[in-house]
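Q: what does this look like with adenosine-5'-diphosphate bound?
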Amino acid sequence: MLNLVLFGPPGAGKGTQSARLIEKYQLVHLSTGDILRGEIANGTPLGLEAKKLMDQGILVPDEVVIGMISNKLDSNPGAKGFIFDGFPRTKAQAAALDQLLSEKNTFINAMLALNVNDEELIQRLLSRGKDSGRPDDANPDIIRKRIEEYNAKTAPLIDYYKAQDKYTSIEGVGTVD
Ligand code: ADP
């Protein structure tokens, strides 16, 4: 199996790059943001709770996203591998992911971290907000909050994966190729 964590701040281009990697390696794409937006679209109780936090740019609780990922791993038993996009976002999520994968006798091969400066991120998200319809992309204060959450809770995962010798940094500006 090939299991990749695609990592980076909001707006770094994780969705764009994962589409390329999925095609090349035939991986199953697991984006917790997409799954959460699906729950919101379906009006589930989980979606209604998550929406309150997402609209403010705050992370949803670890147990919620860990449960979602666990279900998706179980429902794709024949996968050649997975690409984790927007997950893990906290140390607790990263530790849970290692545990879930080890129960399936597999592991994360690499963490690919996209590097983009804050000014560029804000510009990209505001321009995406014009047609994505995502409420969290429309407001500069919410975007800043998401970047703050990233810096406080998610960026420390770089050290987590460095300690496992799995961290690779990639320039996230310039052409997509
Ligand atoms: P982006 O990377 O542009 O912020 P996402 O779609 O990955 O977009 O996430 C949107 C929102 O969904 C986040 O701001 C957060 O509220 C919630 N979310 C997504 N993934 C997670 C996660 N792994 N842990 C906690 N919250 C999450």
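The chain has a mean pLDDT of 95. The first strand starts at residue 2 and ends at 7.
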